[in-house]
Amino acid sequence: MPTKRSGPLVGKCPKCGNNIVLKKSFYGCSNYPEC
């Protein structure tokens, strides 16, 4: 399943391994809310 991306890639999620991205004014897992 492709991950949803809404901003620049900044790292990997420590919980699930997917990308951490900048979402407006905060960082979050690209696999949210499934993560």
The percent of residues in helical segments reads under 10%
Question: β content, as a range?
Answer: 35-45%
List segments where confidence is low: pLDDT < 50 over at least 5 consecutive residues.
Answer: none
Question: Count of helices?
Answer: 0
Strand order of the largest sheet: 1-2-3
Outline the biggest β-sheet: 3 strands, antiparallel
Mean pLDDT: 82
Cα gyration radius (Å): 9 Å
Count of extended strands: 3
Structural summary, described in words:
Keywords: Isomerase. This is Topoisomerase. One of its GO terms (biological process) is DNA topological change. Pfam families: Zn_ribbon_Top1 (PF01396). The protein has strands at residues 9-12, 19-23, 26-29. By secondary structure, it is mainly beta. It has a three-stranded antiparallel β-sheet, with no helix packed on it. A hairpin with a 2-residue loop joins strand 2 (19-23) and strand 3 (26-29). The model has no long low-confidence stretch (mean pLDDT 82).
Q: What attributes characterize this protein structure?
A:
single chain, 3 strands, 0% helix
Summarize the structure.
The protein is an all-beta fold and 35 residues long.
Set down the secondary structure blueprint.
Blueprint: E1 9-12, E2 19-23, E3 26-29
Antiparallel strand pairs: 1-2, 2-3
